[in-house]
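Shape matters. As here.
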Amino acid sequence: MLPSVATVAKMIDHSLLRPELTKDDIKQGCELAAQYAVASVCVRPYDVPVAVGLLRGTGVLIGTVVGFPHGNSTSATKMDETRDVIAAGADEIDMVLPIGRLRDADELYVHDDIAAVVSAAETRCVKVILETSFLCRDGIIMGCRAADEAGADFVKTSTGFAGGGATIEDVALMRASVSDHVQVKAAGGVRSLDTLLALHSAGATRFGATVTAAILDDLATRQAA
């Protein structure tokens, strides 16, 4: 049995992160997010105040990114970024962990980098982006473990700006590698309802998507058939 449109909408973070997006693009994206009552929009840091103004009272959360898209900022810089976007009104933080240090198996550095952002975020939701296309199985497990132990709320597959995106195998591995209280977000390549449902079956509960309307309209059509 298919889930309801409202249920799936509340699993979607409507992504508005492409560098070429204009203010009009952000406005249209926020209007779409409000129309479909998605979980959140995920906007570039300097767009947070714009999104806050557009989405106030709609129930759509404001998400943004830290250390994006490569995770190369120092932990202190990531903390400053986090405090800055929270002051601007962000509800959720999608941070990129230090990918190279994870590939070096420097779990302590990775843990402390995530913990710094979690601390700066206070009670806000923190999602940790692993960029799984750069990682082997052991790297994914280590990144998930570091995020879990550092107090993150989600582990996330991808930025959507690297060579690969979410796969069923990676999502299942991530789900198996974190505690029950940590959720999995799939992002990168979530371009159809069937893909979203397959990733959900593998363990993802939140999805980054740019084709939100197409996914939800497809579900509505199938529900009506």
